[in-house]
Specification:
Length: 55
């Protein structure tokens, strides 16, 4: 059996890969940041270099 330790951020427009042990977990989904987890309510991206996700 294999255990998943990394996956794509659950934010549709985000390109980040997150370590599940360090990710922001919300409603069973894993996100790279609070901005992604909260739906970019303030209109900003996740802040990671090279990623241009936003709402």
């Amino acid at each position: 059996m294999t255990t998943v330790t990394q996956m794509k951020c659950a934010c549709d427009s985000c390109l980040c890969i997150v370590d599940t042990s360090k990710a922001v977990e919300k409603e069973g989904h894993y996100y790279c940041s609070n901005a992604c987890a909260n739906g970019h309510t303030e209109g900003s991206g996740c802040g990671h270099t090279g990623c241009t996700c936003h709402s």
